[in-house]
Amino acid sequence: MQQTWRAVALVMALAWSGSAAAQQGPVERIIEQLGSFTALPESSVCESVVDITTERQLIRLHTELLLTSLACSEAYGYDEGELFALYRQFTADHAREIIHAQTRIEAEFGGGVDGMTQFDAFRTAQANDEAEMLNNMGAGSYCAMRHARFDSLTGPDAVSFEGYAEALAMRARSAAPRC
């Protein structure tokens, strides 16, 4: 429970679309290769198909990267803090996409102070879901599951963050149960 609140606090402290081609692009190939590792955590809120947007997947990925950076340094062979430094650099490099996604989601929630408040609750729920998955699986299994995704987004041959999020959104929409 304490880890969950720490993760939520960090997410809140740090929280600041291409088209689908007929042929598979590099992001789609990576997602297909990762198979079950691209499973999205079950949310505590039922999302309708229209709610599974690229922007929401982008924020979800950013949240996953945060928890991975905090929990997996040792598993990935990094000294303490190095993986988090990669996450921070990733956040700085992709600030424009992250802020754009946040702004779009806030607008979906009605904008203004209410939209920001609802976005904060949305992001907190995602962080809690991810932290719960980490706690339930244990760090070893969680880190093994997230390793390929973390590397594909932060490594030297990183794929498009927004393209990756869009591919996940398309996949999630096609598999989403109707609410």
Keyword list:
179 residues, mainly alpha, disordered N terminus, 9 helices, 71% helix
The main β sheet shows up as: none
Q: Please, what is the average pLDDT?
A: 76
Question: What's the overall geometry?
Answer: globular
Rounded Rg: 15 Å
Low-pLDDT runs: 1-24, 26-45
Give the domain tally: 1
Q: In oligomeric terms, what are we looking at?
A: single chain
Strand content: under 5%
| Total DSSP E strands | 0
Order of helices and strands: HHHHHHHHH
Helical percentage: over 70%
Termini separation (Å)? Answer: 29 Å
SS-derived structural category: mainly alpha
- Count of individual helical segments: 9
Compact description:
By secondary structure, the protein is mainly α.
Detail the topology: elements first, then pairings.
Blueprint: H1 2-14, H2 26-34, H3 54-71, H4 73-76, H5 82-93, H6 95-108, H7 112-137, H8 139-154, H9 161-175
Helix pairs in contact: 1-7, 3-5, 3-6, 3-7, 3-8, 3-9, 6-7, 7-8
Plain-language structure description:
With 179 residues, the chain is mainly alpha-helical. The protein has one domain. Helix content is 71%, strand content 0%. It has nine helices and no strands. It has helices at residues 2-14, 26-34, 54-71, 73-76, 82-93, 95-108, 112-137, 139-154, 161-175. Helix 3 crosses helix 6 (95-108), helix 6 packs across helix 7 and helix 7 crosses helix 8 (139-154). The longest helix is centred in the last third of the chain and has 26 residues, at 112-137. The radius of gyration is 15 Å and the shape is globular. Residues 1-24 and 26-45 have low confidence and may be disordered.
